[in-house]
Amino acid sequence: MANINEIAKRAGVSVSTVSRVLNNHSYVSEEKRVAVQRVIDELDYTPNRLAVDLIRQETRTIGVIMPYNNNPAFDQMLHGVLNRSVEQDYTVMVLPTKYDLSKELDCFNRLKNKQLDGIIITSRSNSWDILVPYAKYGAIVACEYTDHPEIGCAYMDRYASYLEAFRLLRERGHSRVAFTTARGTESNSTKLTIKAYKQIFGDYPPAYHIGDCYRLEDGLRAGEQLLHAALRPTAVYANGDEVAAGIYQYARGIQLEVPEDLAIIGQENQTVGIGLGLASVDHQLVKVGEQAFDLIIQKSKNKIEIPYKIHLRQSI
Amino acid sequence: MANINEIAKRAGVSVSTVSRVLNNHSYVSEEKRVAVQRVIDELDYTPNRLAVDLIRQETRTIGVIMPYNNNPAFDQMLHGVLNRSVEQDYTVMVLPTKYDLSKELDCFNRLKNKQLDGIIITSRSNSWDILVPYAKYGAIVACEYTDHPEIGCAYMDRYASYLEAFRLLRERGHSRVAFTTARGTESNSTKLTIKAYKQIFGDYPPAYHIGDCYRLEDGLRAGEQLLHAALRPTAVYANGDEVAAGIYQYARGIQLEVPEDLAIIGQENQTVGIGLGLASVDHQLVKVGEQAFDLIIQKSKNKIEIPYKIHLRQSI
DNA sequence: CTGAAAGCGCTAACAG
DNA sequence: CTGTTAGCGCTTTCAG
C-alpha cells in the first residue's frame, strides 16, 4: 500500500505537510489541505499504525492477564475492562497464561518491548518481586490488594466477605460447612478462605475442602466428593455460582433438598446462580475491571476498594 | 531502554550481528554470540516489538469483532479463538463494535494499517460489499456462511437447526409457539428464525416474536410480554439459554409449570441452561471459534460447517 | 562469518 | 505556513 512519501510526492508537498493534515496539526493552507486529502482519498491511504506507535512511543493498547479463558470470574473482569476501553478508545489484548510462570512473564515483556501501555492482572502466579520491576515500563494494575507503591489496584476485601458468608451460615445453625476453592493453597483467595473458615468455625477439616473448582463440572465433582461422606456437610460455600450450580445439581440428583438438606451459597452473582435462586457473595467483578481500567489510563497507583454485596436467595 | 545499536556498540559488533543472535540466523562465531548475549543480559535488553513487526510486515495478532461484550454467545466464540491462539502463540485483540457501522469499519482498518494479520467476525453490521474489499489487506473469516470466495467461514446451519427445533415442538403437540431473537429483522439469524417458523407453523404471528433478547433480564421481559397474553403460548424457543432462563424464571414466578404449562427450548448449551435442565440447540460456538482461528492462520478461504446438536432436557 | 547501508512508515524539531 | 532532516528500532540484502 501507498505510504506517506507517495502521498507527499503526488500531492506535490512534503511529508510533514501530509503528516500535518493527517493529524490536523498547526495550520495548513486550505489548498494544500485539499490537495493532500484528494490524493489520500484517491489512493485510499491509511497511515501504518505500527509506524505511528513506534515513533509516538505509545500504543493505546492495554493487556489483560487472564489465566484461563473459560473461567467466568475472569470473564466478568474482562467485561468491565472492555466496557471502559471502548468508551476511551483504547484497545485490549487478551493474555492467557494458564498460570504458567514463564508465559506470564512473556506477557509482561510486552510492556518492556513497548507493545502495551499497561497491564491489568486479574490473577497471577509470579511473585510480586518478579513482577514489580516491570512497572518501570508501563502501568500495572492488579485486581487484588497489594501494598507495593508502584502497583495500582482495584480490589475487594475478600477476607471480610468470606467471614461474613461463613458467619451467616453459622448463624443459621450450620456447623458442618464445606467449601470449594480454585487452585491449591498457593492462591491468595484460597488462603483467605481457609483463614476465614478457621476464624469462624475454629478448625479446618480438610475433607470439607475441595480445590481446583472453576466451573459447573467441578461443582458436580465436589458434590460427589462431599455429599456421600458419613458426616455430610449441611452447608457449602462455593467459590463461584457455576460451581455452586454443579453442587446443587448433584444434590438434587441424589434427592437432597436445598436448602433443607443442604444450604448453598455461591459467589460472583453469575447468571446460573440467579436462575437457580442461589445465594451469592458478589465481589462485583465487572466494576473491579472497570475501575482497574480507569486506574491504568490515569497512570494511577491508587488502591481502590470495591465493596462486595451478598445476595440472599432461596438456597440458604 | 537500550536499543540494538547500543548493544552492538557495547559488544563491539555490528547491529546485524546482534540481530542474528537475536533471531539465531545463519552462523555467528561463538565468541561474538557470547559477547552479544552478555551485553543483552547485562542491559536486560528486549527488542522493540513494534519495530520488529513494522519491518517484518506481520504482527501475529488477530482481531475478533464482538458487537457486545456482555453477550454469552460472542463470549463462547471468543473462547474458541483464544483456545487456539494460545497454542499457536498468536495474540488476540478484542474489538467491540456495538454494531455501529463506522466503529466496525475502524476495526477493519486495523487490517489495512497493518496492525492486525487477520479478523474474525462473530457478527457484523456492515454489508459484505463494504467488508469484502478489506480481504486484500489480511485474512477475514466469518462465523456465518457467506459465498464470497475471499472470505473463509466457520459456520453452522442455523436454518436447519431452527427447523428441527420447531418441528420438535410441533411433534410434541404445540401449535402456539413463541420465539425470541436478537436484533430486529436486519439480523441474519432473525431472518432465518422467522423463515423456519413460517415453514413449520405456516404463518408468523408478530405477537409471539420478542426481539432484542440477549441475556437473562431480556428473558424476564419476554416472559412478561408473552405469558399474560389471552392466548398464551404453550412453548417458546429462546435464542440463548440465558434468555430461556429468564423466561423460565418468569414462568415459575407466575405459577406456571415447565414443561406442563410451558415448554422451553434454549440455545447454545450455556451453563444456566444446564443448571436449570433446559433443552438447548447447541451450535457449538466454541468449536466455531476454534475453527475460525484455524482458517485464519492457514489463510484459508474454505467454508467449514460445524454441526449443531440438540440437547433434550426436562424443559420440553 | 561479518558489517555497511538501505529501508519499514511515520513524527517533530528546526530553519526558513 | 512549509520543507528538510534526523530519528523511532529493527531486519536484510549485498559485498567482502
From TrEMBL, chains A, B:
It comes from the Bacteria. PROSITE patterns: HTH_LACI_1, HTH_LACI_2. SMART domains: HTH_LACI. Residues 2-56 form the HTH lacI-type domain. It holds the Pfam family LacI. Keywords: DNA-binding, Transcription, Transcription regulation. The keyword Transcription regulation applies. PANTHER family: CATABOLITE CONTROL PROTEIN B (PTHR30146:SF105), LACI-RELATED TRANSCRIPTIONAL REPRESSOR (PTHR30146). This is LacI family transcriptional regulator.
